[in-house]
Amino acid sequence: MKHVVRLTLRALIYREDSQWIAHCLELDLVAEGETPMKAFEALQSLTELQIETAMEEGDLQSIFRQAPSEILAAFATAQDRSFRRKLPRR
Predict the structure, then answer these.
(1) 2, 49, 29: which is closest to 11 by C-alpha?
(2) Distance, CA of 22 to CA of 37 (rounded, Å)
(3) 26: helix, strand or coil
(4) Which one of 4, 58, 76, 86 is separated from 52 by 20 to 30 angstroms, measured CA to CA?
(5) In what order do the strands lie in the sheet with 11-16?
(6) What residues contact residue 23 under an 8 Å CB cut-off, 6+ apart?
């Protein structure tokens, strides 16, 4: 039986030195890239792997860790320049 899980995850993407950082607020996962989109795509891949592994182990709840308070505060004051990407169905 195939399980369908729908999650809404938020990310803060910001520049740090010469790299772009993408930080998932709900899972406290961080990825980097040379552009904002590359950082986002790296975070998306990392997030997919984390979720798939947790589902295989039957412990989806274990991956939810809130990002540090300074990241949450930065997100709260950031400008929304959102872009949405649908993940492929598996």
Answers:
(1) 29
(2) 9
(3) coil
(4) 76
(5) 11-16, 19-24, 29-33
(6) 11, 12, 13, 14, 29, 30, 43, 67, 71
Alpha carbons 16 and 48: distance in angstroms, whole number: 24
Return all residues near 32 (Cβ < 8 A) that are at least 6 apart. Answer: 16, 19, 20, 21, 22, 39, 42
Q: How far is residue 75's CA from residue 57's CA, in Å, rounded to a whole number? A: 31
Q: What token pair was written down for 12?
A: 């803060």
Q: Report DSSP state, residue 62.
A: G
Q: Whole-angstrom Cα distance, residue 51 to residue 66? A: 15
pTM: 0.81
Q: Coil, helix or strand for 14?
A: strand
